[in-house]
User: What shape does this take?
Amino acid sequence: MDITTSTHNVDIVVVAMTGRLDALESAQVRALLTEHIEAGSHRIVIDLSAVEFVDSAGLAALVQAMKRSRSAGGDVRLVRPTDANAYRVFELTKFDQVFDIGDTAEDLVSGW
Amino acid sequence: MSELTVTSTYEGLRAIGPWLREIVEPLDDDVAAPLLARMELALQELGTNTVDHADSPDGSFVLRSTIGDDSVRIELRDRGRSTVDVSTIPTPDADEPQVRGYGMMIIEQLVSRLEYAHDGEHNVWTATFEIDHPASGPENSEH
Assistant: This one.
């Protein structure tokens, strides 16, 4: 019998947001996510469950982080907004099929 | 008719949601809520486009609403440069995610009709949202 044990210490950052992820807030979100990525955290869970509104500028901040993370071997995973209207922009742009989206941050973290 | 002057900044766009809420207030809740959600996202995208590209000399744009029995019409009027040719806006490729360029794609899926005109001094966008009245009452019930 062969038994192999390996230990993985994976650096996963969970970022939780509330309120509106719109053109006004997107620069701040973009800067925060860039900071994490440049610090070497390429696996990021963004909890959008309490976000009430997302527009294309807010979406762009998430997409940019996702592309940079994936190119570094990581990913950006999203917790689905509870408010269906806040999720609508993902469906309209088909990014609901591009992002790995789950119902809780715990599920997304444990799946890594 | 209702009118709102919006400061042409991202912060200024935050005034649009509350204004739209007042417009749909006379409607029944089950009609108003989904209509408001469609209108707010579409107008946010249209407003962001204006902030980013129109470069209006007076630093603002004007929204006007007209509500009828079956539709709400919102007109966005700004004095910025005419930079928009809707026919030339590329549709993003779903297989190649890009960071920007989704605004018009989003708007077109939310409005019932979208028109653009440049009258010499103003860019004029007109977005029409049909009101989805739920079937109700004995005259609409199936027998």
